[in-house]
Amino acid sequence: MDLSNAIRVWFEAVNYGEPLRVRTALHVYDDLFEIDTADDVRRVIGDPDAIRMQALIMRERIIGGDHHETHYFIRYRGAVYCDLGETNRCFQLWLHALDLQQKHLCALHPSTISTIGAFIDTFILTVNEGIIIANVDGVRVTPLSRKYLMDVLDKTVFELERFNSSGMKLKKDEIFEEPGDDIRCCNFLMLASLQLILLVGIYSSSSVNSIDVSGLRLMKSSKIRRLSHNDSKLTVNLETEADEKDFDIALSDIVTRLILVSKCLNLYPLHAACHDIDKPVTTRFPCACVITMLIDNGIDVNTKNSLGNTPLHTVLLSNNPRQSVIKLLLQNGATLLARNKENDTCLELISETLPRAFRYLKLGRYLTLMSLAANAVRRNWLKTVYKKIVPKELFAFLDLH
Hints:
The protein is mainly α. Among the domains are: 140-299, no CATH class; 300-401, Serine Threonine Protein Phosphatase 5, Tetratricopeptide repeat. It has helices spanning 3-13, 38-44, 48-63, 68-83, 87-104, 110-137, 146-165, 172-175, 181-202, 244-264, 269-274, 288-296, 311-316, 323-331, 346-353, 358-361, 369-380, 383-386, 395-400. Helix 7 (146-165) runs antiparallel to helix 9 (181-202). The chain is elongated.
């Protein structure tokens, strides 16, 4: 950027037209007011950051918050700060860009998806670098604020809610390049939400050295309080961790919203959380803390996906089924005799893939008489026959088998 020419042009510009009637200072732009007089221009001389912020302020006012160039240059300036190690300023600018995109653009717009993706990549990179530096040098790294993780998680789920509330009627010819892009975007946002839940769960705001990379535990909330999208609890200052209970309530609320909107959009977050993905430790699945969080907030552990697989099927069909995850699902009501479209039950898959795990898992305690009876009915009776005898309330349970 040619800063000297910018100053020269601004000096000329203040001599034209009328003064601005209203000037608003935004915190994201360092609480600066837009320059309106020659004195204002003189105050920013010698301050490159202030000059660049003034350019962002002017661009947003003149071409509007809905223009792609406004979003691009805000994100660009944030990326520069990120490269300089000032991640907080980067996240503040990117959140502002995301606010503008969700305010002015349609749901699942590629620009919005790109911004959320940039957040995910930067969060993961920041945490991984913190772990590496802490392990190699033993230096305490400035922790990543959970506030930003929560803010982006909230907005990611909100993007799915926007798509769902719009009736999924988008100008697909203008927005998406290929058929099915909207489905891919929804799946991306669901996976991004799970990755953010994982980062929130394993990241300790007190010290990078205390990160629980296994992500096996996450504080549970017994009650869930409904919050609006703009509830201040979602943006509470979490740096001090003065009120962990409010944090847990806010996180539980967002997870509940994710579960509800996923059900409406035919997404399967628990299956995704159980799917074996070979990625860095900060985004590795299956993850017990994410699974526990989803279950604690009311997700059905026996939901079937398009292949007829339950979450337990998903774990067992992976390359390296984790016994701890299998046990976690069983303890929370997963049905051993659930049958997929390939006619495989979870019990049969365990017998084939983990024959030595029978003693550890103690499968007998998870077999119920009701499940055995349902399995026998489905095996030996035609659907048209048993539907005339069995109460309607049991149809869903029978379909599971």
